[in-house]
Design brief:
Layout lengths: L5 E10 L2 E9 L4 E5 L6 H9 L6 E6 L2 E2 L10 E4 L11 H6 L10 H13 L15 H15 L3 E5 L7 H18 L2 E5 L3 H7 L2 E6 L2 E7 H6 L4 H7 L5
Parallel strand pairs: 3-8, 3-9, 6-7, 7-8
Antiparallel strand pairs: 1-2, 1-4, 4-5, 9-10
Helix pairs in contact: 3-4
């Protein structure tokens, strides 16, 4: 059996006095939704995997390589945040190009890759626009294009589409799913809306009090909650 793309083992962290411990695996090319109440530790889990927070113990491996001690820029991981993190003085194409070289020392092939990424996310004609000239959905598409040109095997989504309207939110989730299939990228996404998980996630991990208390196929977790905490979160009466 092939090893998982992402393997999080006995990963510990302390936040505001709360002891957290995570164990998680994600298969190559898979997409998993991380759900749970606000403050449960969902974003902390992604930050630990991305390297923005440092664990007090445990390991994180990607493609069989231990990345626990690596700085964020050396991890084979891309993370999209709720904020698009675009530089206001750079064009959409330049912001996407930062995924290749932070100094924007780009070759002809790099520019071709950027144009292709912008086209693939539906904004190929907007490369010369500044962020202030783009809608919220277009700005998130630029951030997604930047992740495409980075060509990393693991994409972390910390609710980057939460501020979008329902139709655009669905469209962006479906775009992520399409890109995931095309590029064989694995996706771990935080969501407060179980409908997001139902739309594109194959599996779900439920986080409660800094621990993953259940994982499994999306329909199994959401339709037949294995714990009282999950049933309460979903508003399902198990009586």
């Amino acid at each position: 059996m092939a090893a998982p793309l992402l393997d999080v083992r006995d990963l510990t962290f302390a936040y505001d006095g709360q002891a957290m411990r995570f164990d998680l695996t994600l298969e190559r090319g898979g997409i998993m939704a991380v759900i749970g109440t606000s403050g449960a530790g969902k974003t902390t889990l992604l930050s630990l995997i991305a390297g923005f927070d440092q664990p007090t113990g445990g390991t994180i491996t990607v493609e069989g390589i231990d990345i626990t001690a690596l700085p964020p820029d050396r991890r084979p991981v891309t993370m999209l945040f709720q904020e698009h993190n675009l530089f206001p003085h750079l064009t959409a194409a330049q912001n996407a190009g930062l995924g290749i070289d932070p100094g924007l020392k780009l070759s002809r092939e790099d520019h071709m890759a950027i144009d292709a990424a912008l086209t693939r996310v539906g904004i190929g004609d907007l490369g010369e626009r500044l962020p202030r000239q783009l809608s919220g959905g277009e700005r998130q598409r630029v951030a997604l294009a930047r992740s495409l040109v980075m060509r990393r095997p693991l994409l972390l989504l910390d609710e980057p589409f939460a501020a979008l309207g329902p139709a655009m939110r669905r469209a962006m989730l479906e775009l992520v799913d399409e890109l995931r299939h095309e590029t064989k990228t694995s996706v771990l996404m935080v969501s407060h809306d179980p409908a997001d998980a139902r739309r594109i996630a194959e599996t779900v991990a439920f986080v409660d009090n800094g621990r993953i208390v259940a994982t499994g196929p999306t329909a199994d977790i959401l339709d037949h909650p294995p714990t009282a905490e999950i049933a309460e979160y979903l508003g399902i009466d198990q009586a």
